[in-house]
């Protein structure tokens, strides 16, 4: 009798352990990386990762039974990690032909940026929307950013001044090392507020372009499977209205 009970207990314990291991094997380990994008991907002073991109990935991972980890790096480093399969997801890149060769982009973009030029208040420079007027101007751009097809096709002729970061670019504009800074409204308004220079800069119209930001995945087979599954789950968030509420709370513009 004792032997039978022991055998039953052993069998039950073995089954429970098997179920636990099977569940653990099914759950994936997902590393999502990016750089500081205001309201899209940030890290709070207490170390929490916030923003629409982080919130979306958490929800997708939870629905898929995945464990997710976030890290913030310089933009070039984050892109390199996903391209070389050291991370699974890159948060927030705009789509270009060059990038599509390196990453698998999500089916839908999850935010939209207005690309614009900023100048110092009181400056006498102007912009009429004609890119042909930019060559010879001191125009700053942020390293690794793209500004729309029209600008990128003329970039070599425009010969912009490269700033390593948005903060660096705004400092260059303040110091009169450039007369224009090409950037996006979402990041720039937040960064100027942090720097305390909102009253010293102004955005000028017309806008340069609109750019949509995506989740981009590494090119491995496993990443492609993850992308397809997360695309499916993302549609559920979108159709259920959850995504719209999240974006509204953070003040992020959604693509139509």
Automatic annotation (TrEMBL):
Keywords: Signal. It holds the Pfam family SBP_bac_3. Residues 1-27 form the signal peptide. Residues 44-124 form the Solute-binding protein family 3/N-terminal domain. This is Amino acid ABC transporter substrate-binding protein (PAAT family). It comes from Undibacterium pigrum.
